[in-house]
Amino acid sequence: MQERLKELQQEALNQINAAESLKELQEIKVSYLGKKGPITEVLRGMGKLSEEERPVMGQLANDVRAAIADKLEEKVARLEELEVEKKLANESIDVTLPGRPAQTGGMHPLTSVVETIEDIFVGLGFEVAEGPEVETDYYNFEALNLPKDHPARDMQDSFYITDDILLRTHTSPVQARTMEKFKGQGPVKIICPGKVFRRDDDDATHSHQFMQVEGLYIDENVRMSDLKGVLLEFAKKFFGPNQKIRLRPSFFPFTEPSVEVDISCVICNGEGCRICKETGWIEVLGAGMVHPRVLEMGGFDPKKYSGFAFGMGVERLAMLKYGIDDIRHFYLNDKRFIEQFKRA
Protein backbone atom coordinates (compact mmCIF):
# COMPACT_ATOMS: atom_id res chain seq x y z
CA MET A 1 0.00 0.00 0.00
CA GLN A 2 2.87 2.33 0.81
CA GLU A 3 4.47 1.67 -2.54
CA ARG A 4 1.15 2.26 -4.33
CA LEU A 5 0.71 5.64 -2.68
CA LYS A 6 4.21 6.71 -3.71
CA GLU A 7 3.55 5.52 -7.26
CA LEU A 8 0.33 7.56 -7.42
CA GLN A 9 2.17 10.63 -6.10
CA GLN A 10 4.84 10.33 -8.78
CA GLU A 11 2.25 9.76 -11.52
CA ALA A 12 0.29 12.84 -10.46
CA LEU A 13 3.40 15.03 -10.26
CA ASN A 14 4.51 13.90 -13.72
CA GLN A 15 1.08 14.70 -15.20
CA ILE A 16 1.06 18.07 -13.48
CA ASN A 17 4.47 18.92 -14.91
CA ALA A 18 3.31 17.95 -18.38
CA ALA A 19 0.00 19.85 -18.20
CA GLU A 20 -0.21 22.89 -20.46
CA SER A 21 -3.62 24.33 -19.53
CA LEU A 22 -5.73 25.10 -16.51
CA LYS A 23 -8.36 22.67 -17.80
CA GLU A 24 -5.85 19.79 -17.70
CA LEU A 25 -4.86 20.70 -14.15
CA GLN A 26 -8.49 20.68 -13.06
CA GLU A 27 -8.94 17.20 -14.56
CA ILE A 28 -5.82 15.96 -12.73
CA LYS A 29 -7.11 17.37 -9.46
CA VAL A 30 -10.45 15.60 -9.80
CA SER A 31 -8.76 12.39 -10.96
CA TYR A 32 -6.32 12.07 -8.03
CA LEU A 33 -7.87 14.01 -5.16
CA GLY A 34 -11.57 13.37 -5.86
CA LYS A 35 -13.73 10.94 -3.86
CA LYS A 36 -13.50 8.37 -6.64
CA GLY A 37 -9.76 8.79 -7.17
CA PRO A 38 -7.06 6.07 -6.76
CA ILE A 39 -5.79 7.50 -3.47
CA THR A 40 -9.23 7.18 -1.89
CA GLU A 41 -9.47 3.63 -3.29
CA VAL A 42 -6.16 2.68 -1.69
CA LEU A 43 -7.25 4.09 1.67
CA ARG A 44 -10.32 1.85 1.66
CA GLY A 45 -7.99 -1.13 2.17
CA MET A 46 -6.63 0.27 5.45
CA GLY A 47 -9.07 -1.96 7.33
CA LYS A 48 -6.85 -4.92 6.57
CA LEU A 49 -3.85 -3.27 8.24
CA SER A 50 -2.76 -3.73 11.85
CA GLU A 51 -3.41 -1.02 14.43
CA GLU A 52 0.28 -0.03 14.33
CA GLU A 53 0.32 0.36 10.50
CA ARG A 54 -2.91 2.38 10.17
CA PRO A 55 -1.62 5.74 11.57
CA VAL A 56 1.55 5.43 9.51
CA MET A 57 -0.39 4.83 6.30
CA GLY A 58 -2.88 7.59 7.17
CA GLN A 59 -0.07 10.11 7.62
CA LEU A 60 1.56 8.96 4.35
CA ALA A 61 -1.75 9.37 2.50
CA ASN A 62 -2.13 12.92 3.87
CA ASP A 63 1.43 13.76 2.82
CA VAL A 64 0.76 12.47 -0.71
CA ARG A 65 -2.45 14.50 -0.97
CA ALA A 66 -0.63 17.65 0.28
CA ALA A 67 2.26 17.17 -2.16
CA ILE A 68 -0.11 16.80 -5.12
CA ALA A 69 -2.25 19.81 -3.99
CA ASP A 70 0.83 22.03 -3.51
CA LYS A 71 2.17 21.09 -6.94
CA LEU A 72 -1.23 21.80 -8.51
CA GLU A 73 -1.43 25.21 -6.85
CA GLU A 74 2.09 26.06 -7.98
CA LYS A 75 1.40 25.02 -11.58
CA VAL A 76 -1.95 26.87 -11.66
CA ALA A 77 -0.24 30.09 -10.53
CA ARG A 78 2.44 29.66 -13.18
CA LEU A 79 -0.05 29.06 -16.00
CA GLU A 80 -2.17 32.06 -14.93
CA GLU A 81 0.94 34.21 -14.95
CA LEU A 82 1.83 32.99 -18.45
CA GLU A 83 -1.70 33.81 -19.67
CA VAL A 84 -1.41 37.36 -18.34
CA GLU A 85 1.99 37.80 -20.01
CA LYS A 86 0.59 36.46 -23.27
CA LYS A 87 -2.41 38.78 -23.08
CA LEU A 88 -0.21 41.80 -22.37
CA ALA A 89 2.00 40.91 -25.30
CA ASN A 90 -0.96 40.59 -27.67
CA GLU A 91 -2.67 43.76 -26.40
CA SER A 92 0.35 46.03 -26.12
CA ILE A 93 -0.25 49.73 -26.76
CA ASP A 94 1.91 51.82 -29.02
CA VAL A 95 2.34 54.95 -26.91
CA THR A 96 3.75 56.82 -29.90
CA LEU A 97 0.39 56.74 -31.72
CA PRO A 98 -1.60 60.01 -31.62
CA GLY A 99 -4.52 60.00 -29.20
CA ARG A 100 -8.15 60.25 -30.22
CA PRO A 101 -9.43 63.81 -29.87
CA ALA A 102 -12.00 64.21 -27.07
CA GLN A 103 -15.28 65.83 -28.01
CA THR A 104 -15.70 68.68 -25.53
CA GLY A 105 -18.92 70.53 -24.92
CA GLY A 106 -19.43 74.28 -24.85
CA MET A 107 -21.32 76.59 -22.55
CA HIS A 108 -24.68 77.79 -23.81
CA PRO A 109 -24.51 81.50 -24.70
CA LEU A 110 -27.38 82.35 -22.30
CA THR A 111 -25.59 80.60 -19.44
CA SER A 112 -22.39 82.45 -20.32
CA VAL A 113 -24.18 85.82 -20.41
CA VAL A 114 -25.92 85.18 -17.07
CA GLU A 115 -22.61 84.27 -15.44
CA THR A 116 -21.00 87.40 -16.88
CA ILE A 117 -23.84 89.56 -15.51
CA GLU A 118 -23.57 87.87 -12.12
CA ASP A 119 -19.82 88.45 -12.00
CA ILE A 120 -20.26 92.14 -12.79
CA PHE A 121 -22.90 92.77 -10.13
CA VAL A 122 -21.20 90.61 -7.50
CA GLY A 123 -18.17 92.82 -8.09
CA LEU A 124 -20.43 95.79 -7.30
CA GLY A 125 -21.47 94.29 -3.98
CA PHE A 126 -24.70 92.53 -5.01
CA GLU A 127 -25.68 89.00 -3.99
CA VAL A 128 -27.46 86.45 -6.20
CA ALA A 129 -30.97 85.47 -5.02
CA GLU A 130 -33.31 82.80 -6.40
CA GLY A 131 -36.98 81.95 -6.10
CA PRO A 132 -39.67 79.57 -7.42
CA GLU A 133 -40.76 79.63 -11.06
CA VAL A 134 -44.32 78.66 -10.06
CA GLU A 135 -45.58 81.63 -8.06
CA THR A 136 -48.62 82.90 -6.20
CA ASP A 137 -50.66 85.80 -7.46
CA TYR A 138 -49.68 87.78 -4.37
CA TYR A 139 -45.90 87.70 -4.90
CA ASN A 140 -46.10 87.96 -8.69
CA PHE A 141 -48.50 90.93 -8.73
CA GLU A 142 -50.00 92.30 -5.53
CA ALA A 143 -46.78 92.68 -3.54
CA LEU A 144 -45.38 94.63 -6.51
CA ASN A 145 -48.21 97.17 -6.59
CA LEU A 146 -49.95 95.58 -9.58
CA PRO A 147 -53.68 96.06 -8.97
CA LYS A 148 -56.29 93.50 -10.03
CA ASP A 149 -57.29 95.45 -13.13
CA HIS A 150 -53.73 95.97 -14.46
CA PRO A 151 -53.24 94.76 -18.08
CA ALA A 152 -50.28 92.61 -17.07
CA ARG A 153 -52.67 90.44 -15.08
CA ASP A 154 -54.78 89.62 -18.09
CA MET A 155 -54.97 85.94 -18.95
CA GLN A 156 -53.55 86.76 -22.38
CA ASP A 157 -50.24 87.67 -20.73
CA SER A 158 -49.86 85.02 -18.01
CA PHE A 159 -49.91 81.24 -17.71
CA TYR A 160 -52.33 80.57 -14.86
CA ILE A 161 -52.47 77.13 -13.25
CA THR A 162 -55.26 78.02 -10.82
CA ASP A 163 -56.91 81.33 -9.94
CA ASP A 164 -54.08 81.98 -7.50
CA ILE A 165 -51.12 80.05 -8.96
CA LEU A 166 -49.24 80.92 -12.16
CA LEU A 167 -45.88 80.69 -13.88
CA ARG A 168 -44.00 83.82 -12.88
CA THR A 169 -44.06 86.58 -15.50
CA HIS A 170 -40.89 88.24 -14.18
CA THR A 171 -38.27 87.59 -11.50
CA SER A 172 -39.59 90.47 -9.38
CA PRO A 173 -41.32 88.03 -6.95
CA VAL A 174 -37.83 87.11 -5.76
CA GLN A 175 -37.40 90.76 -4.73
CA ALA A 176 -40.70 90.71 -2.80
CA ARG A 177 -39.77 87.48 -1.02
CA THR A 178 -36.29 88.80 -0.19
CA MET A 179 -37.69 91.99 1.31
CA GLU A 180 -39.90 89.90 3.59
CA LYS A 181 -36.88 87.89 4.75
CA PHE A 182 -35.04 91.07 5.76
CA LYS A 183 -38.02 92.11 7.93
CA GLY A 184 -37.63 95.82 7.28
CA GLN A 185 -33.92 96.01 8.04
CA GLY A 186 -31.62 97.19 5.24
CA PRO A 187 -29.48 97.16 3.32
CA VAL A 188 -30.80 94.78 0.66
CA LYS A 189 -28.63 94.41 -2.42
CA ILE A 190 -29.50 91.52 -4.74
CA ILE A 191 -29.85 90.45 -8.35
CA CYS A 192 -32.37 87.77 -9.39
CA PRO A 193 -31.56 85.80 -12.58
CA GLY A 194 -33.99 83.19 -13.87
CA LYS A 195 -36.58 81.99 -16.38
CA VAL A 196 -39.93 83.73 -16.80
CA PHE A 197 -43.04 82.87 -18.81
CA ARG A 198 -45.60 84.94 -20.74
CA ARG A 199 -48.33 84.13 -23.23
CA ASP A 200 -46.73 85.39 -26.41
CA ASP A 201 -46.36 84.28 -30.03
CA ASP A 202 -42.83 83.11 -30.77
CA ASP A 203 -41.03 85.02 -33.51
CA ALA A 204 -37.59 86.48 -34.14
CA THR A 205 -37.79 88.83 -31.14
CA HIS A 206 -40.40 87.22 -28.84
CA SER A 207 -40.64 83.96 -26.90
CA HIS A 208 -43.16 82.52 -24.46
CA GLN A 209 -40.21 81.59 -22.23
CA PHE A 210 -37.16 83.80 -21.72
CA MET A 211 -34.66 84.85 -19.07
CA GLN A 212 -34.44 87.97 -16.94
CA VAL A 213 -32.02 89.45 -14.48
CA GLU A 214 -33.53 91.93 -12.05
CA GLY A 215 -31.78 93.93 -9.37
CA LEU A 216 -32.83 95.54 -6.10
CA TYR A 217 -30.99 97.88 -3.75
CA ILE A 218 -32.65 99.21 -0.59
CA ASP A 219 -30.94 101.32 2.05
CA GLU A 220 -31.13 104.75 3.62
CA ASN A 221 -30.63 107.66 1.22
CA VAL A 222 -30.53 105.65 -2.01
CA ARG A 223 -30.92 108.06 -4.96
CA MET A 224 -31.60 107.99 -8.68
CA SER A 225 -27.97 108.99 -9.26
CA ASP A 226 -26.92 105.74 -7.55
CA LEU A 227 -29.07 103.80 -10.00
CA LYS A 228 -27.55 105.59 -12.97
CA GLY A 229 -24.03 105.01 -11.69
CA VAL A 230 -24.59 101.27 -11.21
CA LEU A 231 -26.17 100.83 -14.66
CA LEU A 232 -23.45 102.87 -16.37
CA GLU A 233 -20.79 100.73 -14.73
CA PHE A 234 -22.62 97.58 -15.83
CA ALA A 235 -22.92 98.80 -19.43
CA LYS A 236 -19.20 99.60 -19.61
CA LYS A 237 -18.17 96.23 -18.20
CA PHE A 238 -20.59 94.24 -20.37
CA PHE A 239 -20.40 96.08 -23.70
CA GLY A 240 -17.10 97.95 -23.45
CA PRO A 241 -15.49 100.93 -21.71
CA ASN A 242 -16.79 103.49 -24.22
CA GLN A 243 -20.45 102.76 -23.57
CA LYS A 244 -22.85 105.56 -22.69
CA ILE A 245 -26.37 105.32 -21.27
CA ARG A 246 -29.38 107.59 -21.15
CA LEU A 247 -32.52 107.47 -19.01
CA ARG A 248 -35.95 108.25 -20.45
CA PRO A 249 -39.12 108.75 -18.36
CA SER A 250 -41.44 105.74 -18.33
CA PHE A 251 -44.02 104.01 -16.14
CA PHE A 252 -43.93 100.79 -14.10
CA PRO A 253 -46.36 100.09 -11.25
CA PHE A 254 -43.58 99.00 -8.87
CA THR A 255 -41.24 102.00 -9.36
CA GLU A 256 -41.74 105.76 -9.10
CA PRO A 257 -40.18 107.53 -10.89
CA SER A 258 -39.58 104.96 -13.64
CA VAL A 259 -37.18 105.07 -16.58
CA GLU A 260 -36.29 103.21 -19.75
CA VAL A 261 -32.52 102.81 -20.08
CA ASP A 262 -30.80 103.07 -23.47
CA ILE A 263 -27.20 102.31 -24.38
CA SER A 264 -25.26 103.80 -27.26
CA CYS A 265 -25.69 101.48 -30.24
CA VAL A 266 -23.16 98.64 -30.11
CA ILE A 267 -23.30 98.28 -33.90
CA CYS A 268 -22.56 101.84 -35.02
CA ASN A 269 -21.10 103.22 -31.76
CA GLY A 270 -23.87 105.79 -31.55
CA GLU A 271 -23.50 107.22 -35.05
CA GLY A 272 -26.83 105.89 -36.34
CA CYS A 273 -27.64 102.75 -38.29
CA ARG A 274 -30.49 100.46 -39.32
CA ILE A 275 -30.38 98.56 -36.02
CA CYS A 276 -30.83 101.66 -33.85
CA LYS A 277 -33.13 103.28 -36.44
CA GLU A 278 -30.60 106.06 -36.98
CA THR A 279 -30.98 107.28 -33.38
CA GLY A 280 -27.66 106.01 -32.05
CA TRP A 281 -29.43 104.47 -29.04
CA ILE A 282 -30.85 101.02 -28.18
CA GLU A 283 -33.25 100.37 -25.30
CA VAL A 284 -32.03 97.52 -23.07
CA LEU A 285 -33.80 97.61 -19.71
CA GLY A 286 -36.32 99.24 -17.40
CA ALA A 287 -35.59 100.68 -13.97
CA GLY A 288 -36.66 103.18 -11.36
CA MET A 289 -36.91 104.02 -7.69
CA VAL A 290 -38.83 101.43 -5.68
CA HIS A 291 -42.44 102.57 -5.14
CA PRO A 292 -43.16 103.48 -1.49
CA ARG A 293 -46.12 101.09 -1.55
CA VAL A 294 -43.84 98.20 -2.58
CA LEU A 295 -41.43 99.08 0.23
CA GLU A 296 -44.29 99.15 2.70
CA MET A 297 -45.69 95.79 1.59
CA GLY A 298 -42.19 94.33 1.87
CA GLY A 299 -41.97 95.45 5.49
CA PHE A 300 -39.78 98.56 5.02
CA ASP A 301 -40.56 102.03 6.29
CA PRO A 302 -40.68 104.24 3.13
CA LYS A 303 -39.91 107.30 5.28
CA LYS A 304 -36.60 105.76 6.36
CA TYR A 305 -35.63 103.61 3.40
CA SER A 306 -35.48 104.15 -0.34
CA GLY A 307 -34.20 101.99 -3.14
CA PHE A 308 -33.94 101.30 -6.82
CA ALA A 309 -34.80 98.32 -9.00
CA PHE A 310 -34.02 97.33 -12.56
CA GLY A 311 -34.78 94.47 -14.93
CA MET A 312 -33.17 93.29 -18.17
CA GLY A 313 -33.78 90.51 -20.68
CA VAL A 314 -30.83 88.14 -20.99
CA GLU A 315 -31.64 87.14 -24.57
CA ARG A 316 -31.75 90.78 -25.68
CA LEU A 317 -28.35 91.47 -24.14
CA ALA A 318 -26.91 88.31 -25.72
CA MET A 319 -28.33 89.21 -29.14
CA LEU A 320 -26.76 92.66 -28.95
CA LYS A 321 -23.44 91.40 -27.65
CA TYR A 322 -23.02 88.60 -30.21
CA GLY A 323 -24.98 90.00 -33.18
CA ILE A 324 -27.70 87.29 -33.08
CA ASP A 325 -30.74 88.16 -35.18
CA ASP A 326 -33.30 85.58 -33.97
CA ILE A 327 -34.17 84.73 -30.36
CA ARG A 328 -35.31 81.26 -31.41
CA HIS A 329 -31.69 80.22 -32.01
CA PHE A 330 -31.22 80.03 -28.23
CA TYR A 331 -33.84 77.28 -27.84
CA LEU A 332 -33.53 75.12 -30.99
CA ASN A 333 -30.56 73.09 -29.65
CA ASP A 334 -28.72 73.41 -32.96
CA LYS A 335 -25.15 72.25 -32.29
CA ARG A 336 -23.82 74.44 -35.09
CA PHE A 337 -25.13 77.49 -33.22
CA ILE A 338 -23.96 76.39 -29.77
CA GLU A 339 -20.46 75.45 -30.94
CA GLN A 340 -19.79 79.03 -32.02
CA PHE A 341 -19.69 80.03 -28.35
CA LYS A 342 -17.13 77.53 -27.09
CA ARG A 343 -14.61 79.13 -24.83
CA ALA A 344 -11.00 78.99 -25.91
From TrEMBL:
Listed cofactors: Mg(2+)
A molecular function GO annotation: magnesium ion binding
GO biological process, one term: phenylalanyl-tRNA aminoacylation
A Pfam family recorded for this sequence: tRNA-synt_2d
UniProt-listed SUPFAM superfamilies: Class II aaRS and biotin synthetases (SSF55681), tRNA-binding arm (SSF46589)
UniProt keyword Ligase present: yes
EC code(s) of this entry: 6.1.1.20
Entry's family note: Belongs to the class-II aminoacyl-tRNA synthetase family. Phe-tRNA synthetase alpha subunit type 1 subfamily.
Subunit structure: Tetramer of two alpha and two beta subunits.
Protein name (record): Phenylalanine--tRNA ligase alpha subunit
Taxonomic source organism: Anaerobacillus alkaliphilus
Lineage: Bacteria, Bacillati, Bacillota, Bacilli, Bacillales
